């Protein structure tokens, strides 16, 4: 018979982690776990509920970074003043994930630990070069880059007795935006998503970082697009003349996938939408 535990402190959680076995699962929002258990027909398991550990639901700012607890929900991310002011891309990604009911339950930690290739928040976190704070039942706290934690579709380097407790997200020096393409406008799983972080110098794009999701086992940097965007005007028809570079980037990332033909064309509009989102909080004008 499985057991349910709901620690209230990090110390209690560490003690439970030290006794974790292959039948132990972690839950905060439960939006992914319930589906996973049903698919696997798993009925005898131990459950550690992370939602009662108060520090895992905190968001604060320290030394140029946002510190976001792993149990923070998408709704709280989208509404938090620090996130809205500091990282527009994260606000957008959180506000467009799933339905209202899902956003009220789903957490940023679950979105990452589930390691889905189309996880929206994972694309933003990777673009920012975020760190994960990880609690181990045997080794205590450690930190590692998020791209070292998520290594493939449904795969992470987390040990059996480890859980993500916090994300340390460097605040971009410039603007940030996010956009996604799905089968419909709402409650859609991403078929392609994009995060852009860039500075603006003399109304031109400087030091762009572009991360694309749903073009491989995990989100990846789009180096060809970054080079093509460098020095271009941030406003106006930014993507005009870049269509071939966008198509080459998608072809490079997924050369054998049947979906590459669709995604090569879809990515053109996606990049335009992402740039619009970068400029949204400056007056909502987007492309002029």
Tell me briefly what this model is.
This protein has 288 residues and is of the alpha+beta class.
Describe the structure.
The protein is of the alpha+beta class and 288 residues long. It is built from twelve helices and 14 strands. Strand 13 and strand 14 form a beta hairpin. Helix 5 runs antiparallel to helix 8. The longest helix has 20 residues. The termini are far apart. 39% of the residues are buried.
Secondary structure blueprint with pairings:
Layout: E1 4-5, H1 10-17, E2 24-27, H2 33-40, E3 46-49, E4 59-62, E5 65-69, H3 74-79, H4 81-86, H5 88-95, H6 100-105, H7 108-113, H8 120-127, E6 131-136, E7 140-145, H9 146-149, E8 150-152, E9 155-156, E10 162-170, E11 175-181, E12 192-201, E13 204-213, E14 220-221, H10 223-229, H11 243-253, H12 260-279
Parallel strand pairs: 1-3, 2-3
Antiparallel strand pairs: 4-5, 5-10, 6-7, 6-10, 8-9, 11-12, 12-13, 13-14
Helix pairs in contact: 5-8, 10-11, 11-12
Question: What is the rounded Rg?
Answer: 19 Å
Mean model confidence by pLDDT:
89
For the largest beta sheet, what order do the strands appear in spatially? 4-5-10-6-7
| Total beta strands | 14
Helix-strand makeup class: alpha+beta
Looking at the overall shape, the CATH architecture of the largest domain is: 2-Layer Sandwich
Number of domains: 2
Low-confidence stretches: 283-288
Cα end-to-end separation: 62 Å
The outline comes out as: globular
Into which percent range does the helicity of residues fall?
A: 25-40%
Secondary structure tally, helices: 12
Order of helices and strands: EHEHEEEHHHHHHEEHEEEEEEEHHH
- CATH fold description of the largest domain: Uridine Diphospho-n-acetylenolpyruvylglucosamine Reductase, domain 3
Strand fraction? 25-35%
Major sheet characteristics = 5 strands, antiparallel
Query: What's the CATH C level of the largest domain?
Result: Alpha Beta
């Amino acid at each position: 018979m499985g057991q349910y535990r709901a620690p209230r402190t990090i110390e209690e959680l560490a003690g439970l982690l030290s006794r974790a076995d292959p039948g132990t699962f972690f839950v905060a929002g439960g939006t992914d776990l319930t589906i996973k258990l049903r698919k696997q027909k798993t009925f005898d398991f131990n459950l550690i509920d992370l939602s009662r550990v108060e520090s895992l639901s905190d968001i604060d700012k320290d030394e140029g970074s946002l510190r976001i607890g792993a149990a923070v929900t998408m709704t709280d991310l989208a509404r938090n003043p620090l996130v809205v002011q500091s990282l527009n891309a994260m606000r957008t990604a959180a506000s467009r994930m799933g339905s209202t009911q899902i956003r009220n339950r789903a957490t940023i930690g679950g979105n990452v630990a589930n390691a889905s290739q189309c996880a929206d928040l994972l694309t933003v976190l990777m673009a920012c070069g975020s760190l994960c704070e990880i609690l181990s039942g045997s080794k205590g706290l450690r930190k590692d880059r998020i791209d070292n934690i998520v290594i493939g579709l449904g795969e992470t380097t987390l040990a059996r007795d480890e859980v993500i407790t916090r994300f340390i997200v460097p605040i971009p020096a410039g603007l940030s935006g996010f956009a996604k393409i799905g089968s419909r406008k709402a409650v859609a799983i991403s078929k392609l998503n994009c995060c852009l972080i860039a500075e603006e110098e003399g109304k031109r794009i400087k030091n762009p970082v572009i991360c694309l999701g749903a073009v491989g086992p995990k989100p990846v940097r789009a180096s060809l697009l970054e080079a093509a965007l460098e020095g271009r005007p941030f406003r106006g028809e930014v993507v005009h003349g870049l269509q071939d570079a966008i198509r080459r980037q998608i072809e490079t990332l997924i050369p054998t996938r049947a979906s590459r033909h669709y995604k090569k064309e879809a990515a053109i509009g996606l990049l335009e939408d992402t740039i619009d989102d970068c400029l949204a909080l400056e007056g909502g004008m987007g492309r002029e």
